[in-house]
Fold:
Amino acid sequence: MGKKNLEVCFSPALFRRFENPESIVVIIDVFRASSAICTAFENGAEAIIPVAEVEEAREHKTKGVLVAAERDGNVLDFADFGNSPFNFTREKVEGRTIAYSTTNGTQLINIASSAHTVVIGAFLNISALCGWLTEQERDVVLFCAGWKDKFNLEDTICAGAIGERLMESGKFLTICDSLHASIDLWSMAKGDPPAYIEKAAQRSRLRAKGLDDCIEFCLQPDFTKIIPVKENKILKAMGK
Amino acid sequence: MGKKNLEVCFSPALFRRFENPESIVVIIDVFRASSAICTAFENGAEAIIPVAEVEEAREHKTKGVLVAAERDGNVLDFADFGNSPFNFTREKVEGRTIAYSTTNGTQLINIASSAHTVVIGAFLNISALCGWLTEQERDVVLFCAGWKDKFNLEDTICAGAIGERLMESGKFLTICDSLHASIDLWSMAKGDPPAYIEKAAQRSRLRAKGLDDCIEFCLQPDFTKIIPVKENKILKAMGK
Structure:
């Protein structure tokens, strides 16, 4: 087989330029949706339903589904807990289906639905993800969530960390400047990712809301070997 | 006066998130529109009319305006010359008005029109531009042209070079991850910009079309002290 194409998309507002029905799209939202979803599956969650609207989350609650939902950093009154990965303990999530309220994340999953396969990527599952991607013989788009359509540093360095490994596998080629930039930024960040990410806007936002306790955890490689994959409109642990 | 906000926009498709009627927008299209426009003014051009469509360029030609126009690297049959900065010699352009055919550049200028002031930035006028920007007491958006809505490296390192100087002036603050990334990429590129830009997609495109003779020139600082500025729908040399 010939080499496959590898690209990085920095924002949902740019994704239409990356649409490819034969590709695998990796959704990267390091702070915090991708990391929370990986944590939930590692701790035994059965399925995750991404929901965009508060009312939709409330409806799931009435059906006995666990609900993780915040607005502006406050846990919603009807929710079981908030969006931090630290909330998804084995005690709470094992064997359960969880509605995860994430406006941006749900939007990304919808936008990416034209792809062949949609998976969730994070530092937390990077080795398992990269190993799997190199075996698929498919084009790959690393799709950074960003923030309000804007580029962000944390998703970009994660795309760079994944991109570096994929290029080193020899299975991919690229003519994508966003990939080169991601790999170069990762090369500056990799010595000490938490220090590098100090200047990121989302780092400041989470600190201001007292939600930054999970930063170092989210930047840690290989907490899990699970790759969350989209099946219809929900996320499952691949192969389970 | 308080510090002013400095941001970088990586693509026309993202600009609506940066709209600010009080800001100065710096349009950066290093390969080749920004560089060609700076060169034309340094060599005495009176005005430049950015045109999006071939037919519009043809119409200008019938009115006696000089026309610079290419499609896919071929000079159009009715045009006086192509889009390379090297075509804008003093002999050809002094005292003349030039219609410059650039689909992307014209689109950017239109998109940015909601701003207080729109200027053209390049390595070729970087010191004059940065000196002027630090004196304006206005928010600044460095607006990278990109390519077909995608991020590109050459415009980003130019934004980084400008951004680094503006931040060092002490007149600006930022919470923009795109600015941090641009400055970091510039820090990797600045030792040898032509070598860094070897991996850029547009570098390859220009080489494939034999249009890459101007690359080193476009990456050279301070060929001119002129800042091209938009007045109504045309570009003039600021202060002239």
Remarks:
- The CA atoms of residues 99 and 147 of chain A lie 21 Å apart.
- The mean pLDDT of chain A is 95.
